[in-house]
Predict the structure.
Amino acid sequence: MKPLAYRMRPQKFEDVFGQDHLIGNDGVLTSMLLKKKWLSFILYGPPGTGKTTIAQIFAKESGLDHYFFNASTDSKARLKDILDTTSYHDILIVIDEIHRMKTDVQDYLLPFMENGNATVIGLTTLNPYQSINMAIRSRCHLYEVKKLDDDSIEKALLSSIKELDVDIRIDRNAIKAIVRYANHEVRTALNILESASLVLMDGDVLNAQTVYRVAGKISHDLDDHEDNFYELLSALQKSIRGSDVDASIHYLARLITLGDLLAIIRRLLVIAYEDIGLANPMMGPKVLSACDAAIKVGFPEARIMLSSIVIDMAISPKSNTSVVAIDEAIQDYENQDTGVVPDHANNRKIKINPDIYHYPHNDPESLNDQTYLPDLIKDKVYYTPKDESAYEKALHERLKVIDKVKNKKRK
């Protein structure tokens, strides 16, 4: 018999949880189907969130002849065979792991996308802006398939119990335990449920202890204290930000017990630049070095590198000035007209008239007569330094000199 996660794969959009922004009544993919308007698009998001399921339902509901192509394992010859069918009618191709598509395969596909003979649905777990070739990306709409919330995972579990090979009941704590272990992935949740059911008989009740035993984790970390993995990551960041070294080590210990090394590393790298930032600019490279070492040795030894760097981060001076600056700049650009790039900062204009740009290395006086913000926001200040660390205080002193030359007033 096929695995539970396979048997429970939804056959219509109404049975897919947590993606209403795409497939709800007002979702863009729902509208495509209703209007029979076929646009190529890429679904990106974490594993186990429904990308493949959504693509399969869309392909079936479209009524188009559709094919599945894996960019990692299928050959260019197979793609040619698929695209040859466009001589007779338009088709739809679902391309799994589209970020792995080789350049020559892409080049062959592009004309068929361009003339509309082939509609493409790409699937990837990576950020398409970084991982997918511009030529493909520019011809596709990008839609994020979001992590499932706890309620969605719970609904999937409750609807799946009747499909198990044994007639069991499941108590509330067991549901909560599976939801936590699933880490926002419905496939993982169903796999845990099915594994737990293997040790039960008809009429048994699945409890949290059985879930812990099957999942192979230490139960108290997820049960007695009601911890959620992402809440623990947040608590770790807040403790480091608040310079509480003992709390930082405590939450690191809980996270280590749960075993997701890469998630811990991603959060530490963010903290290094979001919360420590320019107060201690060498912290970023130090964290990266410690994290690389942790990955190389793995658990349990990785705990040593993680502990060392977390202690250093917690005690380090803190500054969020770079985060505040970039967030305000992004908000301005998204919400108002910030104007055009000045001619002397516009490379196209400079090529036409090189004299409008004064190269500061050769002409230090150009600091006085050249500003680079658009005219509409020429007096805008985004970066306001803090004097709470020696390094940023030194930056502030240097900035005072520059601002005086440019006749600019900072907050």
Notes: Residues 218-227 have pLDDT under 50 and may be disordered. Residues 150-221 form a domain with the Helicase, Ruva Protein; domain 3 fold (CATH 1.10.8.60).
